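Lab meeting, item 3. Inverse folding demo.
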């Protein structure tokens, strides 16, 4: 779904009091223009996003992406509306609702870090980046779910359970910022904040058709963000488009005296990331494709045509796209992860700074049984791993230095603006799976910036993301390249499971009936489809005395007979029911009237005339 300015204004101005305003897929600039024109107020925006959360987070598709909502959001919106009327807006985020991951400290909402052990932890002050968002006029609408203590990439936790991917509810949104990814894809806010230790912004961006950036180490503060690994953690935004990402960066990055790695950051950032976006950035850009990073998972077969099409699109836009040989990359990245050496002690130091913390260590969390079952082994192992004084940690630091030098030399030697590779390999994992194959380590180990951008969709309707990694503090150039790609490819598509509300409510379910014949036998069908879950339930009953050999539901194949999706009746059954979840292709076929049923009998073993599943 692509919303132009005229459509956004029409939706906002036409909606009556009962239905509220529609904010699905609206950009920050569109929302800001609507606020400036008087078409909407910040109070109405808060109400509109809350309505979508109420309809879709714990109902309908049940994304489970929101931990808590800000009880003062409407009052804050009223104050910002009054300030706008009296003084004008502070900037592009004035009165705009945003969400933050539940490992960011917020003075007015608990910060649980995804663990039951810290569900009541109430910080006394905002994280540095949260404070900057508020100063820019943003409304912190609420907190998003996350993988417990950010120690994984599937977004499951003892505090909130499993978060779902709005593009396929049977799959994970990635993690650990999967709650932010799912919520922003579903338009629960204008944009959101996540954190990335090894892919936790970029993987959810890839799996939710979003843009997300891991900034250069030292550009953005981590003060007030619950740590996983001090030397690898980065905190930053996810958004539905590059301009929104730039607006969030303009508000949040900069020098923080409490986070010494950011000293000098103000001199490293441009006056405005947003103002640096302009058409034509890809023309003449030189991009190096690291083919060795495309082959990590056999499950990635469906993504390869999408990668190839994206590379061809970059070339068509005027970029010089070349294959590069990154010698010894796997050897460089091996034994380069600092998380196991830092996690336990970094968490303890964070908790020690919060006098009201109900628990003070990872050991206490494990001893109290206060973590999710899928994290039990991970956390128990974390209690016995060596610390920063070990030889293994010294090897990690050496590997980082070597990998940074090799990457910088490759970028400079090949005169590259960026390296290109997939963010995550393979489809999003089904719920219950524990592993994700990704290319998270190169940016995390080197500290170099990387932006995840949408490349397109598989035939099953699952998002695919690619990543551009550039030299230190090249965020402006990466944003410009991504913005030009977005302008030309227009890769953003909203998830099926969270459509615009109709008079303030989700779209109704669809149903229909059909009669299918096969010579002297017949059967009646009835079906019910929930557009928010893609669940199709079909029931069938044979009429008369003749038994059926089989009754099958098919999808078409470009208007011709297509494969069987489900069997309703077999082996002489007279009544049956099938329940299935439709992928993107099957959903499109149902909408277009191309799903059909066939009845098979002894007289007509190959089936009688097809009967279309027509709605009412």
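The presenter then showed the designed sequence:
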């Amino acid at each position: 779904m692509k919303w132009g300015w005229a459509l956004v204004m029409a939706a906002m101005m036409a909606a009556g009091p009962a239905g509220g305003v529609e904010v699905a897929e609206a950009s920050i600039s569109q929302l800001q223009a609507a606020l400036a024109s008087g078409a909407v107020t910040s109070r109405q925006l808060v109400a509109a996003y809350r309505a979508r959360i109420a309809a879709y987070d714990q109902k309908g598709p049940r994304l489970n992406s929101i931990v808590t909502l800000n009880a003062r959001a409407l009052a804050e919106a009223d104050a910002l509306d009054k300030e706008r009327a009296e003084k004008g807006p502070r900037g592009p985020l004035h009165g705009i609702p945003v969400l933050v991951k539940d490992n960011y400290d917020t003075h007015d909402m608990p910060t649980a870090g995804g663990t039951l052990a810290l569900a009541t932890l109430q910080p006394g002050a905002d994280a540095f980046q949260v404070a900057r968002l508020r100063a820019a006029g943003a409304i912190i609408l609420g907190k998003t779910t996350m993988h417990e203590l950010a120690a994984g990439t599937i977004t499951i936790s003892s505090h909130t359970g499993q978060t779902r991917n709005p593009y396929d509810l049977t799959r994970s949104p990635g993690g650990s910022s999967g709650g932010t990814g799912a919520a922003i894809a579903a338009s629960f806010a204008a944009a959101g904040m996540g954190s990335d230790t090894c892919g936790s912004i970029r993987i959810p961006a890839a799996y939710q058709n979003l843009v997300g950036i891991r900034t250069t180490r030292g550009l953005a503060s981590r003060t007030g963000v619950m740590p996983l690994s001090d030397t690898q953690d980065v905190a930053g935004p996810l958004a539905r488009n590059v301009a929104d990402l730039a607006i969030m960066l303009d508000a949040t990055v900069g020098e923080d005296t409490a986070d010494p790695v950011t000293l000098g950051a103000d001199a490293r950032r441009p006056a405005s990331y947003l103002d640096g976006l302009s058409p034509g950035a890809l023309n003449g850009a030189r991009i190096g494709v690291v083919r060795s990073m495309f082959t990590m998972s056999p499950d990635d077969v469906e993504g390869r045509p999408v990668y190839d099409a994206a590379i061809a699109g970059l070339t068509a836009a005027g970029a010089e796209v070349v294959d590069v040989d990154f010698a010894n990359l796997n050897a460089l990245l091996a034994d380069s992860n600092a998380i196991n050496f830092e996690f336990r002690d970094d968490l303890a130091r964070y908790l020690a700074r919060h006098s009201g913390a109900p628990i003070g260590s990872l050991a206490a969390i494990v001893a109290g049984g206060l973590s999710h079952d899928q994290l039990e082994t991970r956390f128990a192992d974390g209690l016995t791993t060596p610390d920063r004084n070990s030889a293994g940690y010294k090897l990690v630091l050496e590997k980082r230095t070597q990998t940074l030098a090799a990457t910088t030399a490759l970028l400079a030697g090949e005169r590259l603006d960026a390296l290109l590779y997939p963010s995550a390999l393979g489809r999003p994992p089904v719920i219950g799976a524990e592993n994700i194959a990704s290319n998270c380590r190169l940016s995390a180990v080197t500290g170099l910036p990387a932006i995840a951008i949408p490349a397109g969709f598989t035939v099953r309707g699952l998002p695919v993301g690619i990543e551009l990694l550039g030299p230190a503090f090249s965020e402006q150039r990466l944003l410009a390249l991504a913005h030009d790609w977005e302008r030309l490819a227009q890769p953003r598509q909203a998830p099926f499971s969270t459509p615009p509300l109709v008079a303030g409510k989700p779209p109704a379910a669809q149903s229909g009936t059909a009669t299918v014949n096969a010579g002297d036998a017949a059967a009646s069908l009835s079906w019910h489809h929930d557009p928010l879950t893609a669940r199709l339930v079909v029931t069938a009953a044979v009429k008369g005395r003749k038994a059926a050999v089989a009754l099958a539901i098919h999808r078409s194949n470009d208007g011709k007979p297509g494969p069987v999706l489900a069997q309703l009746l077999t082996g002489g059954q007279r009544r049956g029911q099938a329940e299935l979840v439709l992928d993107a292709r099957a959903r499109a076929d149902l909408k277009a009237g191309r799903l059909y049923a066939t009845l098979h009998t002894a007289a007509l073993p190959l089936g009688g005339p097809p009967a279309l599943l027509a709605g009412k």
